[in-house]
Input
Amino acid sequence: MKAGFIGLGTMGMHMASSLQRAGHELFVNDVRKEAAEPHMRAGATWAASPALVAQQADVVFTSLPGPPEVEAVALGPGGLIEGLRSGTAYIDLSTNSPTLMRKIHRIFGERGVSVMDATLADGPSGAKIAKLGIWVGGEKEVFDRYLPVLSAIGDNVMYVGPIGAGSITKLMHNCVGFTIQAALAEVFTVAAKAGVEPLELFRAMRQGVGGRRRTFDRVANGFLQAKFDPPSFALKLGHKDLKLATDLGRELDVPMPASNLALNDLTAAMNRGWGGRDSAVYLLLQEERSGVHIEVEDALVQEVLASAG
Output
C-alpha cells in the first residue's frame, strides 16, 4: 500500500519506520525535513506539503502535537484536503479532539475520503518495536479494510466505535490516570507527614486489594453492571474509612481536594439511605448528574475480564 506519514516526532518516527519494514511504500512530511532523513535513506519519498503526500498515497497517517496542528494539516492551505482523492483514507494517530475529528470526517466524507481517529495506548518504546495498543474510531467496514496497515504499527488494534470514539477513549484513559495520580499524591503526603516511610507505604499498598487488582477492573462487577446489592463492602464502612483518612489530612494540615470530593459523594449517598448497599453505589450520583445510565450484561463483562492478559 502507498502510505503517507506526516509528523515524524517521538512516536511518528517509529510508526513510519514500522510501515516501511512491513513493505509499504512511504511518502513523508514533517515541519523539519531532517526528521525524515532516516526514512528517506530507507527508501521513503519526501513530499514538501501535506497536499503532496495526499496526492501520492492510498492512506495518510498523521501523528501531531494536538488539534491546532491536525486542523492545519488536514484542512489548511496546502493541507490534505487539497490532495486526498475519493477512495483514499485519512487516519489520525494524534491525541486529538473528537469534535475536530467529526468535523474532518464530515468534510472529507463529502469528497469520498474515509476518516478514522486511531489513538495510541502505549509510548515510544512500544512504537519502536510495533507493540502498540491502538484504539480506533470510524466506520467498522473502513476499520476492517485498513486493519492490515494498522497492524503494521501496533499489535493490539481495537475498534472502539464511530468516529471520535478513538479520541474519547484516549482522553478518558489519560484523564483517569492523572486523577488517580493526584489522589495518590494526597495519600502519600498525608502518610509521610504522619510518620510512615513512603517506600513502606508503597510496598504495603501494592499488596492491598487496590494494588493487586487492575486499575480499571474495579468498575467491572458493580458500576458497569449496576449491581450494588448485596454488598461486598458496605457504603457505610467505606464512608467511615474515607472520613477517617480525610480527618487525618485536616489534623496534619495536608490538603486533600480529590479525596474530599469523593467523601462529599459518599456522604450524599449515605443521606439517600444507601449505607447498607455496596460501597460503589455512590457512583450512581455521577450518573444522575450526567443524565446517563450504565448497565452492561454480566456475561459481556466477564468475557472482557477473561480476555485480559
